[in-house]
Transcription initiation protein (Duganella radicis), 113 residues
Amino acid sequence: MSKYLISFPSAAMVVPDDEWQEVGRAAHAVIEEAKAAGVYVFAGGIDENTAPALVSADGTVEEGGYPWAPPLDGGFTVLELPSRADAIAWAARLAKACRCAQELRVFMIDPQL
């Protein structure tokens, strides 16, 4: 079993104001299905009202993330699944619920952890 990250940036969600509640219900329903199926690990979104902090190896803290990197925002779901095909199927369910394409990535697991 591998853990898969299913995610989207905030800008990908273009939803009319009067449809946000329905999108939320649909997305939560998919997450509840993942929990019931025993594949749910974690889900949530980046709090865009709180700035990131860049913490250096010496402990120095700067406000903001890497200046050269695009901002990290949006929603994330981590599921533990037996195959990439299963991960694609769950990503498709989330894409339909959220009304936007989802990026799919697999975590590399360090066997020493």
In short: The two ends are 16 Å apart (CA to CA). The longest helix spans residues 20-37. The mean pLDDT is 95.
